[in-house]
Amino acid sequence: MERNSFFRGDIVLWCIITLLAIFSFLPVFSASSNLAFVIGKGTPIGYLFKHFTIMTFGFLLVYVFHKIPFIYFKGISVLMIPVVLILLIYTASQGNIISGSNANRWIQIPVIGFSFQTSSLASIILMMYIAHYLSKNQNKIIKYKTSFWSLWLPVMGVLLLIFPSNFSTAVILFSMVIMLLFVGGYPLKYLFFISTSVLLVFILFVFTAKAFPDIIPNRVDTWANRITNFNSAEKSENYQIERSKIAIASGGIYGKGAGKSVMKNFLPQSSSDFIYAIIVEEYGLIGGVILIILYILLLFRIIVIFHKSESLFGKLLVVGLGVPIVFQAFINIGVTVQLFPVTGQTLPLVSSGGTSAWMNFIAIGIILSVSNSIKHENIDNPLFILSEDK
Hints:
The protein has one domain. The chain is 66% helix and 3% strand. It contains 13 helices and four strands.
């Protein structure tokens, strides 16, 4: 089958992200009325236009990156690691403290006045860098001492700079790093040692921060409160979660209909962190399940492309950039139904957002670049992997 010269790569993946993006306009437009009429900030049409701009530019990023041969990202990752470390240091040094907590997550881009979340870029670059490291050393015996400087120093540098202001992102990123290293064949004994060491350092940090709160401005109290509220039976302590569950319960099987959500007027972050609750309220259990199926299909395509890619670097790129998107989606959904404490993670490719959405589109573009390198025509068949002889 001849490939489309304009849109290359896995056609099913193109369809999935297009469906998610198109569907996102309805709940974002509906939920934005909370900001417009309740908070008195902006207009629904204004938020809809902003979302349209973000999605349009996002697909432009997908198109640009899927045209770049994925092998180029080896060198790009090495060049960009120092850049993201500098950006993270600059972000952390801004001194933005809100209620005693470190609020340094964004930097303001001059002239255009746009806020940029550096941790989103750092996450992608770090996963690319790890994929490059593992593929470069695939035929070598990896020793911890030799890998410390070239692998763990950049990894820990990025994580430590993200950690104080964005705990949930740091935890998710560290989990994905361990996952990618496991898939890439990094020695298990070293992974266990690193994981144990990080846990001990985290416990030490928490005790130190609690003992000297004036010396270390931190979000430890915020993290502790979220966990305490998560386990609390008091509804007043779970304002967001309780309203999220009310929205989901009131949606029933078929939902109230597009734009007819009531809880969007009472649920904070209804267009971003808790947009899944609004989706279920308006489109019912059916709409919520369909959305979950789309994310499962996205994961399935990632597995198919991983299986078909003949390059170890390509395989690791697909896993390192694709799995975190699906993982974040299920974390977000889990928060809305109180499976997890509030994390502040958005619903990828659906929630209103800015740089985090664009980073997801860049990741999808790179995955499509890997899929474009696959020579087998059967990649377009999502069930081919199930019938192939092993």
